[in-house]
Specification:
About 75% of the residues lie in helices and about 0% in strands. The chain contains 11 helices and no strands.
């Protein structure tokens, strides 16, 4: 536990990433390892999350992670966290309702879609677990959050919805 609270130097971060890379067979150059270690200086836990993200990227693409891909992945990791209250407020404003309406257990059409959209945005824009997202929405169950997230993902074939989600995301990040 104490280890996660330590600050570390770029050299020790690079060494840790190198060990993880060898242990987990992540294929990346030393340059990518140094880039990750220098980009993530907050804590060892943050560096481990970055390593996991790069390993996932390497697995998904079935090839080594190059510096360009690593920069993009690390930029996303370093993006400031968005507060769930901001997401709820922006979605509630978009649909002319109150944040309290989003937190109700109502199943009316006027409430369900905005709540699902807000839950989806909370899942993709925060580092909160689905359980924590559910709690922020009036005690919704974890599986309800997962269903909402998956439903909105499936609906993103609609260009109108994609444009709306992108607009909301941009406004939330600007706040």
């Amino acid at each position: 536990m104490e280890r996660h609270r330590q600050l570390y130097s770029c050299a020790s971060g690079a060494a840790m990433l190198g060990k993880g890379r060898a242990k987990d067979r992540m294929i990346a150059s030393d340059e990518v390892v140094r880039l990750a270690a220098s980009a993530i200086r907050k804590s060892i836990a943050e560096l481990e999350r970055a390593l996991t993200r790069l390993q996932g990227l390497s697995s998904a693409t079935e090839r080594p992670v190059d510096c360009r891909a690593a920069r993009i992945a690390l930029r996303r990791a370093a993006a400031p966290a968005v507060e769930i209250g901001c997401i709820q407020k922006m979605v509630a404003d978009k649909y002319s309702m109150s944040v309290a309406d989003l937190k109700t257990r109502s199943r009316s059409v006027e409430v369900v879609f905005p709540r699902q959209l807000a839950m989806y945005l909370a899942c993709i824009m925060t580092n909160l677990s689905t359980r924590d997202v559910g709690r922020a929405f009036g005690g919704q169950r974890q599986d309800a959050v997962t269903r909402a997230r998956d439903k909105i993902k499936r609906m993103l074939d609609d260009p109108f919805l994609v444009e709306m989600v992108n607009g909301l995301t941009q406004r939330i990040r600007e706040r």
